[in-house]
Protein: Rrf2 family transcriptional regulator
Amino acid sequence: MRVSKKFPIAVHSLLIMARFENTDKATSAMIAQSTGSNPVIIRNIFIALKKNGLIESATGKNGGVRLAKAKKDISLWDVYSAVETDDIDEIFKFHEGSGSCAVGKNIYQLMLPHMDTALGAMRDQLRKVTLDTLTGELLTMIENQTGNCPDK
Structure:
């Protein structure tokens, strides 16, 4: 199964927004630095997250991005489906089988229900994990750590 870097970068971005929701405004430059990504990539991810109602943005002096929903109401599936495809034919790429071979002409139909089940399991698992859950896990992980994340 193929998933691009957009999904973990989007989760990373949302975690920064959650972490700074009551103190600082998160900007594409701040998030680009933290993720090691180009600010243009971050802004494109923001467009998808905003289109799906996960973030809000403002320009100008008070510019920045913030969560549009409570952390408990944003699941990993919400993030995944905002920035990635859930089209089974895009996730699982199939080769063209030979129409003259019994295996070749049936491989797609044979595997499709199993791939659909796998995607369903992924969807169900990602729906169980919220941004609130990840924020708590992250805070536990970094309690005694220091690093270059734009913390305080």
About this structure: The mean pLDDT is 86. The first helix runs from residue 6 to 19. The first strand starts at residue 55 and ends at 58.
